[in-house]
Amino acid sequence: MNHRAVLLVNLGSPDSPSAADVRRYLREFLMDEHVIDSGLLTRWFVVNCLILPRRPAVSARNYQKIWTSQGSPLTVAAKNLQRALQQQTARPVALGMRYGKPSIAGALAELRAAHPQLEEILLIPLYPHYTVSTWETAVAKTRAELSKLRWNVRLAPLPPFYRQPAYLNALTVSIREHLTVSDYLLFSYHGVPQRHLRHRFPNDDADYREQCHFTTEQTARRLALPAGGYSTSFQSRFGGEPWCEPYTDKELIRLADSGVKNIAVVCPSFVADCLETLEEIGLTGRRHFLARGGQTFQLIPCLNEHPLWMNALRDWAGL
Fold first, then answer.
1. 214 has which bridge partners?
2. CA 85, CA 243: separation in Å to the nearest integer?
3. Largest CA distance in the chain
4. pTM assigned to the model
5. Sequential DSSP letters for 69-132
6. Which domains does the chain have, with CATH numbers?
7. Beta bridge partners of 234
8. What confidence tens digit (pLDDT) does each residue in 257-292 have?
9. What is the four-CA torsion angle of 238, 240, 244, 245, rounded to 10 degrees?
């Protein structure tokens, strides 16, 4: 009898690339206290009066550029990963998104209905590095939904895995398999406000920025990259406060202006391709780099359903 299940959790996507669905998604995302960590009234004003009147239309146009016939690339990749893992085990493997659908609440309800004998759920937040706006909010939301269900099942969250050799090996092999540009490799990570760097995962002294640099250095060593042939930057900032630097958009311009002609960009903080990789880097970043004199721009795919990545998840889950 199965007494343990696995719940994969990623960020999520809107239901469609329409402005209405994007607005609904952004409201849920930005009203999360882990994302905009000001008081409720301030957060409500910022989201509903400053962001939502304009941002959904812009974001919807960006989503339309990368949307597929199957739906959001992030959701498609997450479902494919879930199916691939499920094929390797008799244990239930569920999928929930922190925002949007399939929801964490829905995934837990389905698990309870189909497997009432469960004693433990291994929660795998699909974020290699720790931040309050990714790993922490995924765990907090899952705990809250379990409490609503009044389901007495143990929740065992998998810690951030940026130091795990299996993750680093999968990342390295994936880069090596796709890399065709040899001049320069830029490691671009999702940015966070600098004030979020004060948060640490228990028993890990590294802040988020230091975690990202660790991933860069370990991967660069495995790839035998020359010291001047790679760097780290941070993308996806919004608002006026300082975020982790250097900023990816400015770094791409700096590198082009410094004479780099052929560049590849990899986004290790994302394990599945999404708006931030496909549009922000693959389209907008490419355009900026080439406009400044760059000749070749390559976006390295995320791990998505790479066999080594699936093997790592399988082993961590004890499947």
1. none
2. 36
3. 62
4. 0.95
5. TTB-HHHHHHHHHHHHHHTT-SS-EEEEESSSSSBHHHHHHHHHHH-TT--EEEEEES-SS--I
6. 4-161+306-317 (3.40.50.1400), 165-299 (3.40.50.1400)
7. 189, 247
8. 999 999 999 999 999 999 999 999 999 999 999 999
9. 100
